[in-house]
Amino acid sequence: MATLLNLQNQTLRIGLNNDPPYTIMDRFGGIELTIIKMMSVYFNFTIKLVDCHGEYGAKLSNGTWTGLLRN
C-alpha cells in the first residue's frame, strides 16, 4: 500500500485571480478552491491565499516580476 504525502501542516501560499465560477476569492469558493481545500486535508497542509488582482505576471526591466509570479 502506498504512503500518503504528509506535508506536516506546512503553509502553502497559493496565488489566485478572481475568475468565477472557477475561483471566487471573496467567499473561498469555486471549483479550484474546492479542490485545493480537499487536497489540504488529504496531504495535511494549510492554505494562505494571495489575491494577485488579475495579473498573471510579467518580468519587468529591473528583473522583478508582477502578478502571480511576484507573490
UniProtKB/TrEMBL annotation:
Gene3D superfamilies per UniProt: Periplasmic binding protein-like II
Source organism, top-level taxon: Eukaryota
UniProt KW keywords: Receptor
Protein name per its UniProtKB record: Glutamate receptor ionotropic, kainate 4, variant 3
Organism: Dermatophagoides farinae (American house dust mite)
Gene transcribed to yield this protein: GRIK4_2
